[in-house]
């Protein structure tokens, strides 16, 4: 499955496995707004990706087999992004979310304190919305993981 979820379900052989509930799909959205998606991914495809997610999620039991991933970075964790991401999950009835750090920032130990605060806010917003949140503590490492809720 392409990470950007650019291929609509009707055009993908594997879509039948997801829409029938026999496979899982993880989409790394990493934003909750069109502007941040464009800045983060370098492409203006937020609407395409979210429209395709809507198509997948509209087919039961597909939504239960979709996980949205948010790779939190210093540049993509505004309040608007966090709330937009959670609202999209609720709208699409996607209840599994994965939260992980941006690898380069983690490796270079460049995650800002404000990014950790916003990561905790994202986790709290997701949990408050009844979403199943998988926090990738293993990827945050001993430097950052203890700071997460």
- Major sheet attributes: 4 strands, parallel
SS field, number of helical segments: 7
* N- and C-termini, Cα separation: 31 Å
Strand order of the largest sheet: 1-2-3-4
Q: Low-confidence stretches at least 5 residues in length (pLDDT < 50)?
A: none
Q: Could you estimate the helical fraction of the residues in percent?
A: 40-55%
Structural category is alpha/beta
- CATH architecture designation: 2-Layer Sandwich
**SSE string, helices as H and strands as E:** HEHHEHEHHEH
What is the arithmetic mean of pLDDT? 87
Rg over C-alpha atoms, rounded to the nearest angstrom: 15 Å
Tell me, what's the shape?
globular
Q: In CATH terms, what is the fold-level topology?
A: Transcription Regulator spoIIAA
The CATH C-level class name: Alpha Beta
The fraction of residues assigned to DSSP E strands is 5-15%
Q: How many beta-strand runs?
A: 4
Description:
The chain has 149 residues and is α/β, with parallel strands linked by helices. Helices cover 46% and strands 14% of the residues. Strand 2, helix 4 and strand 3 form a beta-alpha-beta unit. The model has no long low-confidence stretch (mean pLDDT 87).
List the helices and strands and how they pair.
Layout: H1 15-19, E1 25-28, H2 34-41, H3 46-57, E2 66-72, H4 79-92, E3 96-101, H5 103-107, H6 113-128, E4 132-135, H7 137-144
Parallel strand pairs: 1-2, 2-3, 3-4
Helix pairs in contact: 4-6
């Amino acid at each position: 499955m392409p990470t950007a979820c650019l291929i609509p379900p009707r055009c993908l052989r594997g879509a039948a496995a997801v829409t029938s509930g026999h496979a899982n799909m993880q989409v790394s959205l990493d934003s909750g707004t069109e502007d941040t998606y464009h800045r983060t991914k370098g492409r203006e495809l937020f609407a395409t990706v979210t429209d395709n997610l809507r198509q997948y999620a509209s087919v039961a039991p597909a939504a239960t087999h979709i996980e949205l991933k948010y790779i939190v970075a210093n540049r993509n964790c505004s309040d608007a992004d966090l709330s937009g991401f959670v609202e999209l999950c609720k709208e699409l009835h996607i209840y599994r979310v994965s939260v992980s750090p941006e690898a380069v920032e983690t490796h270079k130990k460049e995650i800002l304190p404000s990014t950790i605060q916003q990561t905790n806010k994202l986790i709290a917003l997701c949990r408050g919305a009844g979403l199943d949140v998988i926090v990738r503590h293993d990827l945050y490492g001993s430097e950052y993981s203890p700071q997460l809720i």
